Amino acid sequence: xxxxxxxxxxxxxxxxxxxxxxxxxxxVMGGPMTDEFLDANPVVARTIVMLGDQTLEALHWAIYDAFxxxxxxxxEFQFGAEPMEPDAARYVMFEDTADEYMDRPATGLAPRTTxxxxxxxxxxxxxxxxxxxxxxWHSIKVAAIDLGTPAGEFPRVVxxxxxxxxxxxxxxxxxxxxEEFEDDEFDDEGRVIEDVTFVEVDDDxxxxxxxxxx
Length: 214
Description:
Distance between the termini: 126 Å
Helix content: 10-25%
Shape: globular
CATH architecture of the largest domain: Roll
Strand content: 25-35%
Structural class: alpha+beta
Number of domains: 2
CATH topology of the largest domain: Structural Genomics Hypothetical 15.5 Kd Protein In mrcA-pckA Intergenic Region, Chain A
Radius of gyration: 30 Å
Strand order of the largest sheet: 5-4-3-6-7-1-2-8
CATH class of the largest domain: Alpha Beta
Number of strands: 8
Largest sheet: 8 strands, mixed
CATH superfamily of the largest domain: MM3350-like
Order of helices and strands: EHEHEEEEEEHH
């Protein structure tokens, strides 16, 4: 009785030999950061390692986590000499296909575009725009491209400079105001009870008849 050998399946693309491994230096260029935060953190950057078959959407989530964000927003990647360059190639999320923020069509979709699709070279710089209201801008520099057999989880952060900037700095101020507000005492009608000095009244005085007011 003959037995057929099971066909050995090839390893997934991200585990084959010769896969491109990208080292990306992501630096915050602008956003709603306070002067106090910037003084304490003149450089805010993360180094992220990714595989060539991973998408720009995966890079978005890697950056999102690397900077400690908690509220997702729209985003796009731009490939030009500077942010918002008119002729820059743009890779957007599905929800941005209406192009309400730009007057020209997108080049591609971030969830369908891998790093290998972009023909990146060492030293190349491109840009990531997160939250079209608060305008968090990041530069992304391709620090290295290596060939190898990946091990461990990807994407992953391998270096950090600076603290995580609060996504909404004004919320911290509101929290402080709320704490002060919570310390107040209120009456039944919701009015703040101010400090009041009470004066003791002698019981004998209460029994004495009062002179009529003129």
